[in-house]
Specification:
The complex is a heterodimer of chains A (about 425) and B (about 375). By secondary structure, chain A is of the alpha/beta class. Chain A has 18 helices and ten strands. Chain B has about 375 residues and is an alpha/beta fold. Chain B is elongated. Strand 2 of chain A pairs antiparallel with strand 3 of chain B, so a sheet runs across the interface.
Amino acid sequence: MNGPDGLPPRLERHRARIERMARERGLDFYETRFVMLDASEVNAVAAYGGFPVRHPSWRFGMEWERLEKGRQWGLSKIYELVVNNDPAWAYLVRSNSEMEQKLVMAHVYGHVDFFKHNLWFEATDRSMVDTMAAHAAEVRRLIDERGHDEVESFLDACLSLDNLVDPWGPSRERLKGSRRASGPAADLEAVLRRGRGEERRAPTCDVLGFLLDHAPLLDWERSLLRIVRAESIYFLPQRLTKVMNEGWASYWHAKILVEGGLSHAEIVDFADCHSGATTAAPGRLNPYKLGIELFRAAEERGLDLFRLRRAHHDVTLIDELVDEDFAARVELFAPSPGPDGKLRSWREKKEELLRALSNGAAPRIELREDDHLRRGELLLVHQHDGRDLDAAPARAVLDNLARLWGRAVHLDTLARGASVRLSARPASARRAG
Amino acid sequence: MSLSRIGQDRARFKDIVRGRLRSDLRRYLTSSELFGRRGDHAVSIPIPQIELPRLRHGDGQGDGRGGEGGGEGEPVEGGEQRPGQGGGEAGDGAGEHILEVDVELEELAELLGRELGLPRIEPRGDRALRAAAGRWSGLAEHGPRSLRHFKRTWRNALERAVASGAYDPDAPLVLPEPRDERFRRKKVVDEPQAAAVVFHVMDVSGSMGREQKEIVRVKAFWIDTWLRSQYEQLEVVYIVHDAVAKVVDQHSFFHLRESGGTKISSAYEVLLEELRSRWRPEDWNIYPFHYSDGDNWSARDTERCIALLRDEILPRCNQFCYGQVKSAYGSGQFKKDLDLALPGEDKLVSVALDGREDVPDAIRAFLGRGR
């Protein structure tokens, strides 16, 4: 491997030129380090979520296996991978053509600009590469100390709760002036907060944060829970802005390459590659496609693109820009029959899309009471929006929650219109009292 | 970028899938598949997946986000794109024959082992299968007192003291805390020390027909597969014989059809010559397998065979296996003679096969002793 700045001279020249063009057009990004890897290595990094080092987990091995099989059979390949960090890290695949490398670089600069300026990313840990490595060291240490199965099993239990966070929490804390949402400093902050009598209390959507403050956990367990929460919160804004983020990056790679980034010989290949990335099978959501259409529509209407990319997330941007005119041009909103056979108008399809994307595509779960019936039990409520919960995993999740909480937990939801309460108790009363 | 870490993660995942570890996760195991193409055939590539339970919306609603399970740090930017694959899944329409691929040999061997209840081969004496050499060159954060690495422990304490400003050069007192401690750890190096050689010896005289050869082929495959899973290094030598014997390559072994008479001793002589010259028992675990229809040239030759086996070949082998395939022309006399002449010889296994359905039993007989 070349060092972080060790691109071959020819690519380095392209990179410098593309960086200059991006800056001239108003993009503003962190320093970005490109690392060139073989396809198999890129798959490994992708399995780690873009990070060079993650804690040991079978999940990453599973992901690598899947990506590798896709690659070996020629079914899928990863073009680009970029990590929200300062400096940003991005990976280039050695086997890609020069035109593809240029496209990826321009695309990456779009992403990094987005990471830096979008409001919902404001609270993210910008030294996450280091943080992840620290998490990995911590998990390895715990494994050394307590054994692999025990640590991994608890980690998996925490992971099954990792979407019980408040998507807007980090940004809200940020706006209130709280400094960091994760990392060792957050621990200190939690202690201080508790000293000030400000610990997280029900009702809240930040179930993981609540457990960190109140669950009767051992030190090593709390440490794992903190790691899971920090990593989940880090990835959250990416779930909230997938369409925008890809649209923004695609808009800029197209613009930069077409306005001079390409040689004449590369135009046709570029068009082929670009349209391949921004095509959508009928009725399917391709975030690249929808995103770039949104930004182009905004451009036609004379809106300030840079402001849009700062203030919005997927749901608000789609809500703002999708009107009858837009719907008429984008296949995704073309009227089509729903499951009941009735034709759905663009308005209904828009509603449906917004609902699917809301809350980072996860169900909205609120912790309503932390001392339910005065027995120290947790009561969670699913804010039903017309979609039922998947029952089988929900039970398993509650089991895990009860394991962490050490007492019974309940979840109120609706199933086929009737209200239902799911409950779970800890398997053993090892933490009674 | 080193792939070893992720390789460990993958090994752990595979162990979970196979049920060796974390049986609590087995209930979340599902198998999805990719559709690929090999030549003109659509093939299905199984992808085992374990999905941790998470609260999510039920069926028929999740069409907002294309694929990619719910939530776990899927890097948004890691979007896989399928250039020029507008149609996606290459022709996996109904009616097309889909082959499943990608059962790894290692897995196959394991299935075989489990199915037939085969014991893993026991390492014996200095001919151990793998030797775990270890040197006390590693470091760990936990360990017994007696293995504390003084120098590293104090260095850490010193670093900490300097970093925290507690270090006073005039009164250089450094006290290690538990977190400074480092312990010596044995670094285990697996060295494949012993290797194995398999001899497949087959009678190709006129009486061995197609079906008999097919049985031999099936058996040889499974035997190789099993032994390969037990040894880092497995060499296979093929010997064919009718009235004369010779060493041949794999292809000839399975396709040759001579039509001469049968002189089994010729094969044993060639085998012995090989054992003397190339495949010495000091360096190799030796497994000869002999397949014949049991029709030898003469009783005198059979005597010679027995003498060779008893005095020369058996002492050199881990185990000698004789599989007698029933044929329309063979008398099947050789096995009887063998069993009569060498009773209680525990390195010798002889089995009679009437048809393919006997293959599993024969394999169990051959490999079931864990030699």
